[in-house]
Fold:
Amino acid sequence: NAGVTQTPKFQVLKTGQSMTLQCAQDMNHNSMYWYRQDPGMGLRLIYYSASEGTTDKGEVPNGYNVSRLNKREFSLRLESAAPSQTSVYFCASPRAGTGETEQYFGPGTRLTVT
Amino acid sequence: SQQGEEDPQALSIQEGENATMNCSYKTSINNLQWYRQNSGRGLVHLILIRSNEREKHSGRLRVTLDTSKKSSSLLITASRAADTASYFCATAGNNRKLIWGLGTSLAVNP
Structure:
């Protein structure tokens, strides 16, 4: 049981480039979440998916798109990267259907945009 | 928006001592959770306390919740060097989202 996996672990992009962050969970959970973590800002929710086929905006969705590909996979896309998107990105999956239960996190993707 | 505010921001103790971290929040909650994050890693869930509970234990962890004061504390007893990490509180309301604090950085010195 790998839990929540994320790829890539590190990425450097130039301003304007695009990329997709991948996340997969093998716990058969319905919900999946994308956060970004910045120094002094804590964790901020970008998008979440309460179930397969649904996605909703979180606190900081601008500049991002998401796809819930199937129950296991939830990807985050940066269409035109900006330096303000330099951050550590975490995918998480709550144990139960709602986000208020304990969440299982992936190891993170460290993204630098120059 | 950040609801949980951890206090202190940083804490340095000797191995074997107890570490206490506090979390304050602003709105009503269904539960409050504590997570640990080791350097360069993802967050790991430690303990969840529901709004109708006052105290909960898990191994060397003790969490208290005072809903009248909108605050919680996490006590780690007999700390070890391996407890060195950042600790975050997160509050859960009715909207499928957790609201996170900024964390307490704990250093346990051997």
